[in-house]
Specification:
The protein is mostly helical and 309 residues long. The chain has twelve helices and no strands.
Length: 309
Amino acid sequence: MIESAFLSIDLPAYIVATLAGLSGGLVGTLLLLKKQTMMADALSHSILPGLALAYIITGTMGTLALFSGALASCLFAGALIYLIQRITTLNANMAMGITLTSMFALGVILLELFIGGRVHLDTEHALYGALELIYWPDPGNIDTMPEQILTLSLVTILVMLIIGLGHQYLKLALFDSHYANLQGLSELKISALILLLTVLVAVASFDAVGSILVLALFACPPACARMVTDKFSRQIIWSGLIGAACGIGGYFTGAVLPPLLGFENSLSAAGSIAVLAGATQLCFILFAPEYGVLAQIVHKDKKSKNMGQ
């Protein structure tokens, strides 16, 4: 009975959390190096009006309809951010801030006016996701596999293939954009590719883990990896592994551990993953071997002693 419950309830949640952390970490590294991590926040909050409009228009909560609506909403948000930058004197962060607040507010209004709790689509779901509600009635049977697993698996494979095959081009464009332009790799093309990958991961992860966790997985694992190494390929690998580990550890800490310790209720899985991601980043900031705070203090002490001698 316990094994059956694990396979049907916990295992699919572990898989989704791992895939969300892995794909978010990989794409988040590109955003970090391009100094556009705020873009993930803008896009994750821009998904909500697309979901609401998709349900209003189609009257269904089918994966294809919701995914299409969310994708269109994110692409519109990306175009809006670019347009605001072009026609105003506002910088990128301000354009993103205006877009994410406006789009999320529009989504909330659409939910309240036209949906009103008739389906499992509300602001709480948008913020915290529904990781604990993922259910696999017949574990091992692909026909009954939760849609979140299938969608995230495809997106994660696509992200890994694009980053793996385009590794050298991405590295060149991110670290030497002038030379990349001479080689025919325009900044606009690279930005569009990173935007597309960000949209795909954000949309695929949103239903299960919500906007808060999407942002945490885009931001924290890459920041941890940046504290460990300067090499691009290693940052990619570190970030993906840390993201996956945060997904697994956070779900266990929030959903599985409290009942084992005798508590009556579990904690929010998405919230626990986000907290673990933040705590992990804090640990890396303090204890990273070369760039951590403690390592910097030691280096300064050694330098002072050498100068004194």
